[in-house]
């Protein structure tokens, strides 16, 4: 698996954890930063994963708006976390 693929998976994992555990993204990023520093073999995917997560967090309202506009028969609250 390429570093970018690993980064995308890692970003999805972080976003999922934040959503399911109802944690602020900053807390999840802080935890992952510590893990990144303790596991240098994961360094190749860290920067891109962090950029993805930060970008999603920064654009959350716009992303949710697009999802709401295009969802048919589903409210965003009813959608499974991974589908969002």
Break the fold down into its secondary structure elements and pairings.
Elements: H1 3-20, H2 25-38, H3 43-58, H4 60-70
Helix pairs in contact: 1-2, 1-3, 2-3
Order of helices and strands: HHHH
% residues in beta strands: under 5%
**Main pleated sheet:** none
Terminal CA distance: 24 Å
Q: What's the total count of β strands?
A: 0
Q: What would the average pLDDT be, to the nearest integer?
A: 90
Low-confidence stretches: none
Overall spatial form: elongated
Radius of gyration: 14 Å
Q: Helix share of residues?
A: over 70%
- Find the structural class using helix and strand composition: mainly alpha
Please give the count of helices.
4
Structure description:
By secondary structure, the protein is mainly alpha-helical. It has 4 helices and no strands.
Short description:
This protein has 4 helices and no strands. The chain is mostly helical and 84 residues long.
Name a few traits of the molecule:
single chain, mainly alpha
